[in-house]
Amino acid sequence: MVCTLLGACATGTVVLLPEKDGRHTAVTVKQGDREILLEEPYAATRVTPVGPRAYRSSAQEVESQFGPALAARPSRAASFTLYFVEGKDEFTEESRLVVDRILSEIALRPVPDVLVVGHTDLVGSDPFNDALGQQRAETVRSALIRLGIPQSDIHAISRGKRAPAVPTADGVAEPRNRRVEIIVR
After folding, report:
1. pTM
2. DSSP of 72-133, one letter per residue?
3. How far apart are CA 13 and CA 84, in angstroms?
4. Cβ-based neighbours of 178, under 8 Å, separated by 6 or more
5. How far apart are CA 140 and CA 149, in angstroms?
6. CA of 77: how far to CAs of 149, 159, 182, 184, 185, in Å?
7. What confidence tens digit (pLDDT) does each residue in 5-60 have?
8. Which among 175, 182, 160, 171 has a CA at the least distance from the CA of 83?
9. Structural domains in the chain?
């Protein structure tokens, strides 16, 4: 909700901002026993002694009133997925092409925080898949470090087979589950 809602407690103003991807959002502002539903971009309300009062804000008003707060917001997290050859920590050919996009996204961030999460399909034991997921995450982490990203900015973990992208029965080899997710914040 942080990216879709602006609130200034000092002024008692709440403004619903448009989502970059066009998704529909809404929020209810409640004061005492009165409430107002904000459900379109720039719908707004002011908290007053007699209850909330709805009005229509604008991009100009938002910039004027909330510009410094908006400028201080961190960028939204960007997520990338790299896929692996079955039973290995080797990228598929398509995944090799994604690495440049990851580096570009990291370069946009003044203080990047990169989380690398290794996953496996549901073939094999939990201990095997935990180790393979970690090995895959470490492979990506090492590659990013070799490409100039400080190691202190990158954290690698494994989810093994616990969070499949495509639910399958245990023992089913599903290529889309053999992945590493890279979250750049």
Report:
1. 0.68
2. HSPPPPEEEEEEB-TTSS-B-HHHHTTHHHHHHHHHT-SS--EEEEEE--S-S-HHHHHHHH
3. 49
4. 83, 84, 85, 86, 119, 120, 121, 136
5. 11
6. 17, 20, 10, 5, 4
7. 444 443 489 999 998 888 889 999 998 899 999 999 999 999 888 889 999 999 99
8. 175
9. 5-72 (no CATH), 78-184 (3.30.1330.60)
